[in-house]
Every structure is written in structure tokens, then in C-alpha cells.
Amino acid sequence: MVEVSQLTPDLPSDLHYRDRMPNDGSGVLRLGQLINGARQDKRWTQKDLAEESGASLETIKRYENGKIKDPDSELVRSIIKALGISVLEIPIALGHVTREELDLPPAPARTFTPTVEEAIAILEDPDMSDEAKHGALQYLRYLRANNPGTGKPGASTGQPRAS
Fold it and tell me: According to the model, what pLDDT value does residue 158 have?
């Protein structure tokens, strides 16, 4: 395991950052993507994650959208713990260290179901117009917003909702 002191910018080492780390918000965006991807892999809604982590729904939304300037370390830990992710992924997502610096193997490639692979192939098809791709995405967003087939209590089963 790498000692934290080996990563500080004022110590000569092959493991420290020679330049200042970017402060452009990209780390917070990567953290949001990590949270969002893990939540979706668990097939949880943002509300499910809020309940499991003790964070508010609004906080989960802000984190996933990268709208947090200075992430609260205890809150991030509780969200990551609820998702079953190693806390070592936090500084990696924020861009403070690399997986290599922590002696971790490369991140596993994300695998998709055949249906998702087909959707990706359709959206990457160069013969499909951008307008058609946009329409397909709008339809998928509509389906996601109505939660068909998530298996979650209270989710739509494709049947019309009672008013």
C-alpha cells in the first residue's frame, strides 16, 4: 500500500503529482458518475439510495449531477458504503490518486446485458440520423421516468397509472 506522505506534492517521488491537480470540477463529475453507475447497477432509484445512505434525495441528485463544490467526506462515505463500493474509489474518482498508486488492479470493464449492448449499437450506428438518435433517447428517458419493469415497489408495471 502506498503511504499518503508519498503522494504529497512537496516530496520528491515518482508517485506525486508534478503539477497541481485540476480544480475544474471534473473529479466531482467522476464521483457523481461513480455513484450514479453503482446505483443503477443495483437497480435503485435515487430515493432508494437516499434512504439507504441517510442522505436527502436532493443531495443524491446534486452529487450525481456533479453540483457539489466541496463534497462532505462523511456523507460521501455513507453513500459509497450504501452502494457497496470500496472507500478507496473516492480519491480515485476525485482524481487525487490513481488505481496504480493505490496498488489496485485496473477497474473492471463494465458489462452490459444484450439488450443494453443492442441499444448502444443502435445509438452508435453512423447510418442513423442524429434526429432519430435524439428521438430514441427521449423515448428511453420517458420509459425511465415512468419506471417500467424495475421490480421496485410502487414502480409502474406498464399499466396506466391511477389518477
Answer: 40
What is the residue whose three cell numbers read 506522505?
5
- CA 97 to centroid of chain Cα atoms: 18
Mean pLDDT by 10 residues, the chain (163 residues): 46 43 70 91 94 95 89 92 92 88 85 86 91 90 73 41 37
Nearest to 7 by CA among 88, 76, 71, 98: 98
In one letter, which amino acid is 63?
A: Y
- Domain architecture of the chain: domains with CATH: 4-94 (1.10.260.40), 114-145 (no CATH)
DSSP 19: S
Instruction: Name the residue among 78, 6, 65 with its Cα closest to residue 31.
Output: 65
Is the Cβ–Cβ distance between 32 and 63 less than 8 Å? Answer: yes
